[in-house]
Amino acid sequence: MSLGGGGGGGQLEQLSQELDVLEQQKEAMEAEIEGFRDEQSEIDEATEALDALESGSTVQVPLGGDAYVRAEIQDLDETVVSLGGGYAAEQDEAGAVETLERKREALDDRIAEVEAEIEEVESERDQLEQQAQQLQQQQMQQLQGQMGGLGGESDDE
Questions:
Q1: Residue predicted with more confidence, 83 or 26
Q2: For the chain, which residues make up each domain, given as ranges?
Q3: pTM to 2 decimals?
């Protein structure tokens, strides 16, 4: 029989590893939500631009590599919007705004789903932390009992 409590240390180690995995999952989901929110910001900017711009307006068009070219909008009713899956469609201004709003709503739904998953992970983490605390308390009590049994007679002198 060991002074460590008969294998409880292994259980604590396992709980610690499970807690680490849950924390990593939570962080990954939070990063996913942040990415969705960034997408939503881009959608909001595009929607605002479509509402504010008029045919004949001058804009800066990104070329890549932080290079831009000044261009004139010929016709807002020839807006190309990504539909997802590598597909895009040319739409009039109202159709483009509607498509962007649907994409934003889909992101809202996905954010809500991931937030619910985070709550589940946090609940599971709380349960594991409680188990770990109980296990630590049991080990401390066992250790104190063993220590008391070893040196209990010296207190009476």
A1: 26
A2: 10-139
A3: 0.74
